[in-house]
Design a protein that fits this description.
The protein is 46% helix and 4% strand. By secondary structure, it is mainly alpha-helical. Belongs to the glycosyl hydrolase 63 family.
Length: 451
């Protein structure tokens, strides 16, 4: 145990046994495998990319060493083309524990031309690039330990290669933004924002796969078999094309994915400066991405950012939480920030009125469902991102209210995967890794805030 972890454990020993930091720490300990943290022991028994980034942000308050290890383990599975895979498979987990598993993705063979690692099996798609932001926050938690271990020196080239892959290989629309080639890449798998572009995809036959997710959740809360068949079809075609980008039928510019890239590009600039390298080019790149985000994805009529279907070129007229996450972008124009806050607190998302956490989809949308995966429930990671964005732009009152609700509902729900946005009822898995980690992070930030 590193020195910081010893001090944290000592401090926690004096906290009430039911205090939020103690309970969150227990979840993270229970999900720790020795080198990384699973999102949940049942439904998600491997290492997930953006989960690990969020988990590291919380772990930094318990053990900066473990937080660094979390990110290092993930980045050790990076492909030589720069992509960070969305799943790193644990070989000790049975093949049928999760679908699609390593025998589906076949990374060591199908991914050979793209530089998949030979010693570990991974998926072939990616997830949102939160990693540089996480690495910078983890470094700041204990700079002495970070310098002693050469943490930033080791992860910086990998993070730079990750961003380079996205910027060079995934600008499929030609407008300067990154496209996702599968709904699983954006992280909000079942959002109605994907319905129109997914409708073009012929689903894989239901008999060709077995859904392990239905063993752990109510079918009425999960994606339909039809949608899941389309997910499988897209993944098969990407795999069979040897994970070559730009050839599939699905390509979407997503505001959340690009906003997280912008925030991480700014973080990568801070890391470069810390290492004595130039940071101006990275800040300038983040500014160009911000301009492209506003130009291509802002909808004044909707009062928020929307997804763009690259194949058809049009904005997708569905309001998802993804369109609010650009609040994280530091140089977002003030009038756009004001419009986003109005949309967030207005009838479409109801924050502070009908809802206490940010619903994943428009309350007035035809596809809204308060329990179905990403079609209405509130998720803790997206609410954490929105809270951080509100605070960044000086929107203190809604940020305080959202932060208080996040902490209360995370604890009351048993650190659930997601909750009903109206009632706070726990949905999905409990003891969920990023819920515990981000509640712990927010709790600590509130303690550390002066005044």
């Amino acid at each position: 145990m590193d020195r910081t972890a010893q001090l944290t454990a000592h401090a926690l020993s004096y906290a009430p046994p039911d205090a939020l930091p103690v309970r969150a720490a227990r979840v993270l300990d229970a999900n720790w495998t020795g080198a990384s943290t699973v999102p949940s022991r049942g439904l998600y028994p491997h290492q997930w990319s953006w989960d690990s980034a969020f988990i590291a942000i919380g772990l930094r308050h318990l053990s900066p060493l473990r937080a660094q290890t979390e990110l290092e383990t993930l980045l050790a599975a990076q492909w030589t083309d720069g992509r960070v895979p969305h799943i790193v498979f644990n070989p000790s987990v049975p093949l049928d524990a999760y679908f699609p598993g390593p025998d589906f993705w076949r990374s060591t063979t199908a991914g050979r031309a793209a530089g998949a690692p030979r010693t570990v099996q991974t998926s072939g798609i990616v997830q949102p690039p939160v990693h540089a932001l996480a690495a910078w926050l983890v470094h700041r938690a204990d700079p002495g330990l970070s310098h002693a271990r050469g943490f930033l020196t080791r992860v910086y080239p990998r993070l730079a290669a990750w961003h380079r892959y996205l910027l060079r290989r995934r600008d499929l629309g030609g407008g300067g933004l990154v496209s996702v080639v599968h709904p699983w890449e954006q992280g909000m798998d079942n959002s109605p924002c994907w319905d129109a572009p997914l409708a073009r995809i012929d689903p894989a036959p239901a008999r060709s796969f077995r859904r392990a997710d239905l063993d752990h959740g109510a079918p009425e809360d999960r994606p339909t078999d039809l949608d899941y068949g389309r997910y499988v079809r897209l993944a098969v075609e990407y795999r069979d094309a040897r994970y070559s980008d730009g050839q599939g039928e699905f390509a979407v510019e997503d505001p959340s994915f690009n906003a997280l890239l912008i925030a991480s590009e700014h973080a990568l600039a801070h890391i470069a400066a810390e290492l004595g390298a130039g940071s101006a080019a990275r800040h300038a790149r983040a500014e160009r991405l911000t301009a492209a985000l506003v130009e291509r994805l802002w909808s004044a009529e909707s009062g928020m950012f929307l997804c763009r279907d690259v194949s058809g070129g049009e904005l997708i007229p569905e309001r998802g939480v993804s369109g609010l996450i650009p609040l994280l972008v530091p140089m977002l124009p003030g009038e756009l920030v004001s419009a986003l806050v109005r949309t967030l607190t207005g009838p479409h998302f109801g924050l502070g009125g009908a809802t206490r956490l940010v619903p994943s989809y428009d309350l007035l949308g035809e596809a809204f469902d308060p329990h179905r995966y990403w079609r209405g429930p509130a998720w803790f990671n997206t609410s954490w991102l929105v809270e951080r964005g509100l605070r960044l732009h000086g929107e203190r009152a809604p940020a305080d209210a959202l932060g208080a609700a996040l902490l209360e509902l995370a604890e009351a729900s048993g650190f659930a995967e997601y909750v009903d946005p109206f009632t706070g009822e726990a949905c999905g898995a409990t003891g969920f890794g990023w819920t515990a980690a981000l509640a712990l992070d927010l709790h600590q930030r509130l303690l550390d805030r002066p005044g």
